């Protein structure tokens, strides 16, 4: 991991007891907090609410993670360059409604309709990136303004309509499973694998991370940081579009409210999984573990009959706790020079 | 307070007027209000009526207080995404105290304001102690506050508020709604704090350059906590006056505040990068946003499009902010250049 990790004799953990060494290993592990929280909550739920590990409930969890995971990936791609995409909720709503309209009113088969929708999402992301880079306006404000502008344009054009006469083959895909595993989850993991490959194995992915880690250094090293930033936003719009068409297939209808609840989970899942808000570091597996943790918490509240209204509060508390724990974990590692 | 208050260096105090010159202050927003207002009074005959003035006055009063909250945090170089959540939570808490527990109106209002300030102090403490960005902290606490609001009310409003509370919202002096005067009074107090009181100047210096402020002896962390508490106090204030105006404590209060809370200060010349604010500018910005939304209705444009216009206005305001901060950067470069090229003092000269 770190440059000096092979000098094991220099580390204080080397000569310590097994328990100590386990502890040091755990503290150094990036995914420690999210995995521990996940295990503790899952075990508690298995004991407290046996319905938790019923096949039906696990499938429901699978559907939830499938969509939340891709939404989180849409945020991860912009987080990698150290920016935020607040408009991904509106892009999701636009893409969902556009695909729904193309299928129901335009009479298009589902595949081209979905593809056009996703392409439109990528275009909306590209426009956002282009405005940020070319105008130099504060990226947060551009994203906030476009979130409203996109949503307003969508509402103005659709007049609040929703589409629920979608092709049966498309809706069936949203409910189908392979050996009990939802197709949507398999598709979602495949998307995650591709995104992970992009970040770890391609030059473009490394350029994204370099730009996020230090834009000035990246620029000095010959990376066209402006173009890289536009690419990050395009990819984000594309992934938000994919999440939207997945959710439309799952719900069987395209509504303007699609994506309205995405914003907090889109930040919480990556951050819980160790992705840095400041850019330069993404963890795709961690992002999915974060999405799983959020889904398990929501699921647990339902199983224990707690009002869904409290979920939002708990989500905020979990996010803050995770961030605080991770901060102290990092400073512990630094202090003890692990 | 036995220890002497750390004084700001003269340079930092003297900086304010030059910044104002280079950022343009509120003048652009005031001109925009006059132009749009003139255009609307020609295009929409009902725009310049007393009824419409009352509608405008109530919206401006509420929006300006929300925008003051965001302005204060922006001036300190931060941001607060929880203004709407705090406003909504305070509204239902005050409403609930009065309806369910029959708490007297003044006591309920004071308790609501205190809870608001406490929520803000929590925001500030989390930002300072964890070192996390204000963005993520307030995003998370906004979710906590909204969840508390919905958990307490189950999404149901408090309808039966005392008459004396509802009367505040309807009160007028010589045809001018009292709430508008209250907003102006709040603005005057804030103007005094940020231009004449050490604490306000310290907050601005933290926004302009936190490192320089720290070296000059400004308690940076304390200023950040105070400014977050102030912002949530103002958000709570806005939630309470909106409840008084509506006569119902709705859990949905504050849902749509976020965008406008940023738009009004930016239109009015408050720098996103911190260190400069303009209270008349915020009021002018709130006025502009209100008459544009009002004008769309007067011109019979589908309300579905309103959000698109808000988005485009804030984007334009962001563009103007960008030009302003380029001006400030140029000013600072010129100052550095002048300092570097100053002739060395001769012996005997002070």
Gap from first CA to last CA of chain B: 33 Å
Radius of gyration of chain A: 21 Å
By oligomeric state, this entry counts as heterodimer
What percent of the residues of chain A sit in helical stretches (DSSP H or I)?
over 70%
Largest sheet of chain A: 2 strands, antiparallel
How would you characterize the overall build of this protein?
Chain A is mainly alpha-helical and 338 residues long. Chain A has one domain: Orthogonal Bundle (ABC transporter involved in vitamin B12 uptake, BtuC). Chain A contains 14 helices and 2 strands. Chain A has helices at 18-28, 32-48, 55-79, 88-104, 110-135, 139-158, 168-175, 183-201, 203-213, 215-220, 225-251, 263-272, 284-303, 309-335, and strands at 177-178, 181-182. In chain A, a hairpin with a 2-residue loop joins strand 1 (177-178) and strand 2 (181-182). In chain A, helix 3 (55-79) packs antiparallel against helix 11 (225-251) and helix 4 crosses helix 11. The radius of gyration of chain A is 21 Å and the shape is globular. Chain A starts with 17 loop residues before the first helix and ends with a helix. In chain A, 47% of the residues are buried. The model of chain A is unreliable at 1-10 (pLDDT under 50). Chain B has helices spanning 10-23, 27-43, 50-75, 83-100, 105-130, 134-153, 163-170, 178-196, 198-208, 210-215, 220-246, 257-267, 279-298, 306-340; strands at residues 172-173, 176-177. In chain B, strands 1-2 form a two-stranded antiparallel ribbon. Mean pLDDT of chain B is 86; it is low at 1-18.
Topology:
The complex is a heterodimer of chains A (338) and B (350).
Chain A: H1 18-28, H2 32-48, H3 55-79, H4 88-104, H5 110-135, H6 139-158, H7 168-175, E1 177-178, E2 181-182, H8 183-201, H9 203-213, H10 215-220, H11 225-251, H12 263-272, H13 284-303, H14 309-335
Antiparallel strand pairs in A: 1-2
Helix pairs in contact in A: 2-13, 3-8, 3-11, 3-12, 3-13, 4-5, 4-6, 4-11, 5-6, 5-11, 7-11, 8-9, 9-11, 12-13, 12-14
Chain B: H1 10-23, H2 27-43, H3 50-75, H4 83-100, H5 105-130, H6 134-153, H7 163-170, E1 172-173, E2 176-177, H8 178-196, H9 198-208, H10 210-215, H11 220-246, H12 257-267, H13 279-298, H14 306-340
Antiparallel strand pairs in B: 1-2
């Amino acid at each position: 991991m770190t440059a000096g990790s092979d000098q094991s004799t220099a580390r204080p953990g080397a000569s310590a007891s097994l328990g100590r060494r386990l502890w040091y290993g755990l503290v150094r592990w990036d995914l420690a907090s999210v995995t521990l929280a996940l295990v503790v909550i899952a075990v508690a739920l298995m004991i407290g609410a046996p319905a938790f590990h019923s096949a039906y409930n696990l499938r429901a969890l699978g559907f939830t993670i499938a969509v939340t995971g891709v939404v989180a990936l849409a945020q991860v791609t912009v987080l990698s360059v150290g920016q935020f995409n607040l408009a991904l909720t509106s892009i999701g709503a636009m893409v969902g409604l556009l695909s729904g309209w193309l299928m129901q009113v335009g009479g298009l088969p589902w595949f081209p309709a979905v593809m056009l929708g996703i392409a439109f999402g990528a275009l909306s992301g590209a426009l956002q990136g282009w405005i940020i880079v070319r105008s130099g306006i504060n990226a947060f404000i551009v994203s906030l303004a476009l979130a409203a502008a996109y949503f307003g344009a969508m509402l103005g054009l659709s007049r609040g309509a929703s589409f629920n006469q979608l092709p049966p083959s498309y809706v069936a895909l949203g409910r189908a499973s392979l050996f009990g595993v939802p197709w949507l989850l398999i598709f979602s993991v495949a998307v995650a694998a591709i995104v992970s490959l992009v970040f770890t194995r391609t030059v473009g992915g490394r350029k994204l991370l370099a730009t996020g880690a230090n834009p000035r250094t990246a620029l000095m090293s010959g990376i066209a940081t402006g173009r890289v930033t536009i690419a990050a936003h395009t990819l984000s719009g594309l992934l938000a579009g994919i999440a939207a068409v997945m959710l439309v297939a799952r719900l069987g209808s395209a509504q303007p409210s699609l994506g309205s609840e995405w914003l907090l989970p889109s930040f919480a899942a990556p951050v819980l999984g160790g992705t840095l808000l400041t850019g330069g570091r993404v963890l795709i597996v961690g992002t999915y573990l974060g999405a799983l943790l959020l889904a398990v918490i929501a699921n647990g509240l339902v199983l224990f009959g707690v009002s869904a209204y409290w979920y939002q509060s708990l989500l905020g508390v979990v996010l803050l706790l995770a961030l605080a724990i991770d901060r102290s974990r990092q400073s512990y590692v630094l202090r003890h020079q692990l | 307070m036995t220890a002497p208050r750390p004084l700001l260096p003269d340079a930092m105090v003297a900086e304010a007027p030059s910044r104002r010159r280079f950022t343009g202050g509120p003048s652009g927003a005031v001109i925009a209000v006059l132009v749009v207002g003139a255009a609307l009074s020609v295009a929409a005959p009902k725009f310049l009526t007393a009824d419409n003035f009352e509608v405008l006055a109530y919206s401006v009063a509420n929006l300006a207080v929300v925008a003051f909250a965001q302005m204060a945090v922006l001036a300190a170089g931060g941001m607060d995404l929880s203004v709407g959540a705090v406003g909504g939570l305070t509204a239902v808490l005050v409403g609930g105290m009065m309806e369910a527990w029959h708490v007297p109106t003044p006591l309920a209002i004071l308790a609501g304001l205190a809870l608001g300030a406490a929520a803000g102090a929590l925001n500030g403490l989390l930002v300072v102690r964890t070192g996390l960005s204000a963005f993520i902290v307030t995003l998370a606490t906004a979710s906590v506050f909204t969840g508390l609001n919905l958990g307490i009310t189950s999404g149901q409003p408090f309808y039966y508020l005392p008459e004396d509370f509802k009367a505040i919202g309807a009160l007028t002096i010589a045809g001018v709604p009292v709430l508008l005067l209250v907003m102006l009074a709040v603005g005057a107090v804030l103007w005094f704090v940020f231009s004449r009181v050490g604490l306000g100047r310290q907050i601005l210096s933290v926004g302009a350059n936190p490192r320089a402020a720290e070296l000059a002896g400004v308690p940076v962390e304390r200023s950040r906590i105070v400014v977050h508490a102030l912002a949530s106090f103002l958000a709570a204030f806005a939630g309470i006056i909106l409840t008084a105006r509506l006569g119902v404590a709705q859990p949905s209060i504050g849902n749509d505040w976020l965008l406008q809370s940023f738009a009004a200060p930016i239109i009015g010349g408050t720098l996103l990068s911190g260190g400069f604010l303009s209270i008349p500018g915020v009021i002018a910005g709130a006025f502009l946003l209100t008459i544009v939304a009002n004008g769309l209705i007067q011109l019979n444009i589908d309300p579905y499009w309103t959000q698109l216009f808000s988005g485009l206005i804030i984007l334009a305001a962001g563009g103007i902010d960008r030009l302003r901060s380029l001006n400030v950067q140029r000013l600072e470069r010129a100052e550095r250049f002048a300092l570097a090229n100053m002739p060395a003092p001769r012996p005997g000269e002070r």
